[in-house]
Amino acid sequence: MAADLPSSSSSSGVARALAHHHQAVLGFLLGLFVSLVLYTTVSGQFRSTSTIVVLQSTQAERTGQISMTSPPPVSSASSPPNNSTQVHDHIENGQTGEVIKTTGKEDLEDKNVAHATDVNNKTGNAQADKIDQLGQPANNASDKGYLIRQDGADGNNGSVKHGAPGKPICDLSDPRYDICEISGDARAIGVNRTVLYVPPAEERDTDGQEWAIKDQSRKQLVDIIEVNVKTLSAAQSLVAPECTSRHAVPAVVFAMNGLTSNPWHDFGDVLIPLFITTRAYDGEVQFLVTEIQSWFVDKYRLILTNLSRYDIVDFNKDAGVRCYPHITVGLRSHRDLGIDPARTPRNYTMLDFRLYIRDIFSLPPDSQGTPYKEANKKNETDGIDDGTEKQKPRLMLINRSGNRKFVNVPEISAAVQAAGFEVLVEEPSRDVRLEEFSRVVDSCDVLMGAHGAALTSFFFLRTGAAMLQVVPWGVDTAMRYFGVQAKEMMLQDVEYNIAAEESTLYEKYGKDHPMISDPESIHKQGWELTRQYFWLEQDIRINTTKFASMLHQLFQTLA
Ligand SMILES: *[C@@H]1O[C@H](CO)[C@@H](O)[C@H](O)[C@H]1NC(C)=O
Ligand SMILES: *[C@@H]1O[C@H](CO)[C@@H](O)[C@H](O)[C@H]1NC(C)=O
Ligand SMILES: *[C@@H]1O[C@H](CO)[C@@H](O)[C@H](O)[C@H]1NC(C)=O
Ligand SMILES: *[C@@H]1O[C@H](CO)[C@@H](O)[C@H](O)[C@H]1NC(C)=O
Ligand SMILES: *[C@@H]1O[C@H](CO)[C@@H](O)[C@H](O)[C@H]1NC(C)=O
Ligand SMILES: *[C@@H]1O[C@H](CO)[C@@H](O)[C@H](O)[C@H]1NC(C)=O
Ligand SMILES: *[C@@H]1O[C@H](CO)[C@@H](O)[C@H](O)[C@H]1NC(C)=O
Ligand SMILES: *[C@@H]1O[C@H](CO)[C@@H](O)[C@H](O)[C@H]1NC(C)=O
Ligand SMILES: *[C@@H]1O[C@H](CO)[C@@H](O)[C@H](O)[C@H]1NC(C)=O
Ligand SMILES: *[C@@H]1O[C@H](CO)[C@@H](O)[C@H](O)[C@H]1NC(C)=O
């Protein structure tokens, strides 16, 4: 349920998002690059040079003998995705057409350099047509791939045959990601970035086949280094490298680099895609990670160790020949920080994901109301509501530093308190310990921040709690990057769209500058300018008078 807040109604956000979509080109460009800025503007200072921890697998010992893994529990067999399933994915798909190329790694580490300047000029109807085509799902896209086949949807009754006929299927059709599914005799050689399929003798061909796969969810990123997937020819099969370890469970090869470093990308590019790709294995899967990031493994250990109960393998350094009954190379992804339930093995939704995350972090079950409601309820049942000082709803105020920061935090805090809230000012860094931080977020009724990656902490909120997004002047991705997700996860999605006067750009450039009088004209001039003005140069001075009326309404919804 979204708060009915007049000037901030999120339906206007939807309208904007749709309007945005109609300007296919703009949407196409903005979508990706704006997300890159979420990354660049937060992550630069955090790039770590720490050495990577080698996580040696002990799985070889534990599963010295091959035994067939049991399939994930059979859910009702669902049909393959067909062309009616993806209408709402067009906007997102549109952002990531395969024509996109990003610039080099240096740029990714430089806060002030655009990632993808070479596509700013990709305009015109040809491009729009292409987007629409890309948005169409392939009927045979192996989106539910391996898991579906296990679930019996393709004719067997659920008994899995890992050695079942089938060549490696590398599906390059999705605009966001490439993926390979290899069933049977699959061999992974980490130091060679190679995954081999050795076909059974009767199926061998004189020719092999080979793919180069970017093993993460944004296949257009130059940073993601390809993994080679090969079907061996008859001749090659005879001299295939011998297994040095055999494993009973499937493996998934994926990269941990790319745009990871800020939570929006950590979740959107890796953790949610990993959830989509592997959750149905119920932990019975091993991760072979390319470009492993020790900080990422540490920070998200709870999630990673739940999705896979086996040791994470630092694949770049792994010299063995690891043999699995099934290997997936790559991660599926449906949209920015999102899930399309129809394309997942068990119809997972974003709500499922939030509840899963809460579960993993041992936060209270969903039957618990928001902290404020819960406190009210307790006192009612205890009959001690004697009018003594009441617990207040608690609002976490994310205090960004750098760009898009609030320049009048003390005034905002005072307004929040005056409206009846307890306020908690937080500045989560990349190294924040999520085990603790998740509890703090869980204890809040409202998570407030300017459009930016820190709002990704909304996964730790309780059902019915509010995400209060302060939308900077000229920024129009509020719904797409956070609002839609908040709604899907049964959080209140509240947007406070600042007026021009609340932007420091107004003071700096005056009311007659086009960026104030006509932000759309800036958008039309391309991402570089849009980014420079609205994303990097702008800070926010909230008009607390105006803001107070919204706070009062929000307060009502929480009682
Ligand atoms: C699409 O789904 C509908 C309903 O499940 C089904 O009747 C139809 O055959 C499907 N179309 C394709 C092309 O799979
Ligand atoms: C964009 O493309 C048009 C036509 O291809 C070209 O004339 C124009 O110079 C390009 N603009 C930029 C900024 O590259
Ligand atoms: C989908 O199936 C059709 C025919 O069944 C085939 O021509 C096409 O190559 C397949 N596409 C993919 C991505 O497998
Ligand atoms: C499933 O199929 C296998 C082999 O086709 C057969 O042995 C088994 O009895 C079947 N199980 C059920 C429950 O139908
Ligand atoms: C890795 O590749 C190199 C060069 O192609 C090859 O000599 C070596 O045998 C490969 N390693 C394994 C384990 O196959
Ligand atoms: C993952 O977490 C769920 C609870 O959400 C738990 O039931 C399951 O056993 C965990 N799996 C692993 C592999 O730890
Ligand atoms: C997934 O959703 C589809 C369509 O909404 C439905 O037909 C199917 O039964 C669902 N599958 C599961 C496992 O819930
Ligand atoms: C409930 O009662 C306790 C003890 O009187 C008090 O500290 C707390 O603030 C009350 N909470 C609410 C929401 O009234
Ligand atoms: C917010 O952050 C700024 C700088 O990043 C800092 O100076 C200020 O003290 C912080 N405010 C609070 C209330 O923590
Ligand atoms: C703040 O907002 C109030 C109410 O909308 C308005 O009357 C006032 O002029 C604004 N103050 C400034 C400094 O813009």
Question: Mind explaining what this structure looks like?
Answer:
With 559 residues, the chain is an alpha/beta fold. Among the domains are: 170-348, no CATH class; 371-381 and 390-503 and 539-558, Rossmann fold (3-Layer(aba) Sandwich), CATH 3.40.50.360. The protein is built from 21 helices and 15 strands. Strands 1, 2, 3, 4, 5, 6, 7, 8, 9 and 10 form a ten-stranded mixed β-sheet that branches. The protein has a five-stranded parallel β-sheet with strand order 12-11-13-14-15, with helices on both faces. Helix 14 (409-418) links the parallel strand 11 (394-398) and strand 12 (422-426). Helix 1 packs across helix 16 (478-488) and helix 14 (409-418) packs across helix 21. The protein is globular and about 75 Å long. One 2-acetamido-2-deoxy-beta-D-glucopyranose (NAG) binds next to loops. One 2-acetamido-2-deoxy-beta-D-glucopyranose binds at residues 375-376, 379, 384-385, 388-391.
- Radius of gyration of CA atoms, rounded to a whole number: 25 Å
Helical coverage, percent range: 25-40%
Distance N terminus to C terminus?
14 Å
Mean pLDDT: 76
Q: Which molecules are bound in this entry?
A: 2-acetamido-2-deoxy-beta-D-glucopyranose
Counted beta strands: 15
- Anisotropy-based shape: globular
Report the uncertain regions.
1-165
What is the number of helices?
21
Main sheet overview: 10 strands, mixed
Indicate the structural class. Answer: alpha/beta
Taken as a percent bin, the fraction of beta residues is: 5-15%
Domain Glycosyltransferase 61 catalytic: 379-467
GO molecular function: pentosyltransferase activity
Transmembrane segments: 24-42
Pathway: Glycan metabolism
